[in-house]
Amino acid sequence: MNLIASGKNKLGFVAVDYKGRPVAQRLFKSGFKVAAYDVDRMIKIKRLGCVLVLIGVASLMGYSQETASEYVSPSEAVPRGKAPKMQVQLLNPGEPTKQYAVVFYQGDEAFSGLQEFAEKYQVTSAHFTAIGALNGATLGWFDPQRKMYKKIPINGQHEVIGMSGDIALYQGKAVVHTHMVVGSPDGTTLAGHVLAAYVSPTLEVIVTVDPRTMKKRFDPATDLILIDPASK
Predict the structure, then answer these.
(1) How far apart are CA 91 and CA 112, in angstroms?
(2) How is 52-109 classified by DSSP, letter by letter?
(3) What is the pLDDT of residue 188?
(4) For residue 193, what is the DSSP state?
(5) By the 8 A CB rule, do 190 and 181 touch?
(6) 192/132 Cα distance (integer angstroms)
């Protein structure tokens, strides 16, 4: 850049370029353009950063919601349905060890029905087996690391190949614990802890009441309610 001294200011002269423009003015304009460009660039970078943060938060929320929907804690794994068509018959009147046939029909939720049966008939200790069929269920696999049940969804019609469980007291209230194996149309099987089971067309449960009351206790190592034979 060729500078030519022209005119005087307090310092004695003003520097101009070959076109006669004051150097300070030209540099100011150029610097202003650069500064404006940098500000615009920073705004775009900040906007991009905000978008990436929002995407990350949305992804984490989606993952947490998915995880929450896939798992259920033992305290939440309780009966929530109804079994309005359930029928109960005492099979051996007068015998010291009672046996009941508890039969469910289309649409009944069997886990809830068994809980209702235990409370209504004041069953404090029992074991049971069942066969039948379902149209939809949710089973669970217990994850000892999470201390939670991972849900196993059962969609559509399935045969109940086997169902077994027990009834015992926890804090003075009957608690049903049951597992199930179901067969798919292609003959493959799924199994697990019963969280919900929707009967179609029937489920036949034979309950044997035990002569001695079984009690359960809370196990802090697993967050499960477990039978304690030593409890009285």
Answers:
(1) 22
(2) HHHHHHHHHHHHHHHHHHHEE-GGG-S--S--TT-EEEESSTT-SS-EEEEEEETT-B
(3) 97
(4) E
(5) yes
(6) 16
Q: Considering the chain, what percentage of its residues have pLDDT values greater than 90? A: 66
* Burial class of residue 127 (count of CB atoms within 10 Å of its CB; 0-12, 13-18, 19+): middle
| Number of DSSP helices (H) and strands (E) in the chain, helices first | 2, 11
Residue 60 pLDDT exceeds 70: no
Cα–Cα distance measured from residue 132 to residue 10, given in angstroms and rounded to the nearest whole number: 105
Write out the two tokens for 59.
Answer: 């992804």
Residue written as token pair 């099987």: 189
Average pLDDT over residues 100-118: 98
pLDDT tops 90 at residue 62: no
**What is the SS3 assignment for 2-21?**
CCEEECCCCCCCEEECCCCC
